[in-house]
Amino acid sequence: MATDKLVMAVIRAARPAFLNDHDKAAFVVHATFLSFGYLLTATSPQALFDDALSHPSTEEVSVENWNQLDQEYVFVYVNPKKVLIKVLVKCLVMNEKLLIDALKEWSFDPAHLEICVRDYIIANERSNYSEQLKNLEQLVRRLNQDILAKLANCFFGQPRNGLPGLESVPDHCSTGLDPQLHHSGKRDYLFLFILLMMLLNDRGLFKLPVALLALAITVGFQRWGRQEQRTEEKRREDRALWDSNLGIMVLTLFEGPN
Predict the structure, then answer these.
(1) 183 in the Ramachandran plot: left (φ > 0), alpha (ψ -120 to 50) or beta?
(2) Among candidates 167, 209, 216, which has minimal Cα distance to 191?
């Protein structure tokens, strides 16, 4: 968890040049992510590229040109413990507010926080950073709760439509339910495939007859299941035909000869 002391230490080490009060608030957001353990992999304008999240590079970069965009700050981070997933952070200036959104790769539910800049920034140009910020502990606590905690709790979320067979898997990050094992219904075919691979790589060991026996049993059960299904369908067809013929016979009996 990031703390106000760690955040201030990061700011002092980076010694950023602020152009306005929104710069100060945005850099506090950046310093909080670094204090939490994230690494910066891109910042504006490179962070605005379409492949900013999907780009394979996880190399750490400097914070140079971080405040060159107009009314917007963009950062891309990677967590060293989960290097396969990146996080895109955007800070949008809206009058006296700073709108903060953090979206992790493969997610469609960004973490969001709105802050009033004047609640945390002192309007002066002094060189001492502690004299340019106020209520830093409160701001860092809000970032921890509303942004970083949400990203950490849902870090393993994956797009349900991105992989076949996962459409029925509930998103435990949004439902609050514990994740459950999911079976796609392909286990039988996977088992047969593994057995075939064993046969192809067999070197005369005992696993060959065992594999053949297991394969025969599996195929036999599948054929039996299909036969039972066809038998049941045949029974239903015969019953429907019998009911139809019986109805014709009864109708003929009641009508009698013309």
Answers:
(1) beta
(2) 216
Helix (H) or strand (E) holding 5: helix 4-14
Q: Which residues pair with 91 in a beta bridge?
A: 73, 100
Beta-bridge partners for 42: 76
Alpha-carbon gap, residue 200 to 196, rounded angstroms:
6
Closest alpha carbon to 52 in 6, 8, 86: 86
Closest CA to 110 of 88, 129, 94, 128: 88
- Give the H/E segment covering residue 207: helix 207-255
Distance CA 150, CA 157 (A): 11
Q: Report yes or no on whether pTM surpasses 0.70.
A: no
Q: Are 109 and 101 in contact (CB under 8 A)?
A: no
CA 203 to chain centre: 43
Taking only the tens place, the pLDDT of each residue in 160-188 is 344 433 433 444 444 444 444 444 445 55
Contact 28, 120 (CB under 8 A): yes
Between CA 238 and CA 163 the distance in angstroms is: 43
Q: Edge-to-edge strands of the sheet including 39-43?
A: 39-43, 72-79, 82-94, 97-104, 111-116
Using one digit for the tens of pLDDT, what is the confidence trace for 116-127?
999 999 988 778
